[in-house]
């Protein structure tokens, strides 16, 4: 199904959309920074990393290899430094994984480009879907055990303080679900599967809850800005995938 507005946003209005979206993201993040932080050096660094993240995700949604994966490496390196500086050693694992996945993506995407030099997405077979679901189920099942093991060495990814969201849902499990979803979505994106955006959309909803509960309002705002981009990325990747299939059909 084609949607005219999204066709325009991902087509002839792409530059205008990117500029407007980026400016809105910068304004939102800057407001969150100014109103909710103490403006320390680490807060300023956090803000700069967020700006780099904006460039990264919008470039990925429009299938730009060097800008998307290149700025992705810069953003995740920044997140790694932030977590290390704040003493959250376990939380360094996700940006570390993302850094090396973007590094791999630079080379992998360059081998699968269209005439404009943009990466060509691919659809997932039934087996890829089953493998993805199995990966998430196994990840959720094993995470508490692995997290406890890492905690014994002082490297816990998620701390379990028995807090609950709305007094019902364990905050620990919300964090676990967010972590597993984002790792799976990142892997699917780097492997060029269009369905990765569905995972990012779901992941963003979960991360929004995590960030609000932990008082991390800059990244809560960033998550909402990212969510808008995820819907555009979802449409752009599926449209590109369908167009590449049409071009591959033999002319009769």
UniProtKB/TrEMBL annotation:
The chain crosses the membrane at residues 14-37, 44-62, 82-107, 127-145, 165-185, 197-219. InterPro entries: NMN_transpt_PnuC (IPR006419). GO terms for cellular component: plasma membrane. The keyword Transmembrane helix applies. The keyword Transcription regulation does not apply. One of its GO terms (molecular function) is nicotinamide riboside transmembrane transporter activity. Its main location: membrane. Coiled coil: none annotated. Keywords: Cell membrane, Membrane, Transmembrane, Transmembrane helix, Transport. Required for nicotinamide riboside transport across the inner membrane. Belongs to the nicotinamide ribonucleoside (NR) uptake permease (TC 4.B.1) family. This is Nicotinamide riboside transporter PnuC. It comes from Psychrobacter luti.
């Amino acid at each position: 199904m084609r949607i005219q507005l999204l066709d325009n946003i991902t087509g002839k209005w792409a530059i205008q959309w990117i500029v407007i979206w980026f400016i809105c993201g910068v304004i939102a993040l800057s407001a969150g920074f100014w109103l909710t932080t103490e403006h320390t050096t680490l807060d300023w660094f956090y803000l700069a990393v967020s700006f780099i993240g904006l460039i990264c995700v919008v470039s990925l949604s429009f299938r730009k290899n060097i800008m998307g994966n290149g700025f992705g490496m810069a953003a995740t390196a920044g997140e790694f430094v932030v977590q290390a500086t704040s003493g959250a050693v376990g939380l360094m694992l996700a940006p570390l994984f993302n850094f090396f996945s973007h590094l791999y993506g630079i080379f992998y995407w360059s081998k699968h480009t269209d005439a404009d030099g943009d990466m060509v997405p691919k659809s997932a077979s039934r087996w890829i879907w089953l493998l993805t679901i199995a990966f998430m189920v196994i990840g959720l099942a094993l995470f508490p055990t692995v997290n406890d093991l890492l905690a014994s060495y002082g490297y816990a990814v998620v701390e379990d303080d028995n807090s609950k969201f709305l007094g019902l849902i364990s905050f620990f499990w919300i964090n676990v679900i967010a972590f597993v979803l984002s790792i799976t979505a990142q892997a699917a994106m780097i492997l060029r599967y269009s369905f990765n955006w569905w995972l990012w959309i779901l992941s963003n909803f979960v991360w929004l809850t995590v960030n609000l509960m932990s008082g991390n309002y800059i990244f809560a705002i960033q998550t909402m800005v990212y969510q808008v981009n995820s819907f555009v990325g979802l449409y752009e990747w599926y449209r590109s995938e369908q167009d590449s299939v049409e071009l591959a059909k033999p002319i009769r």
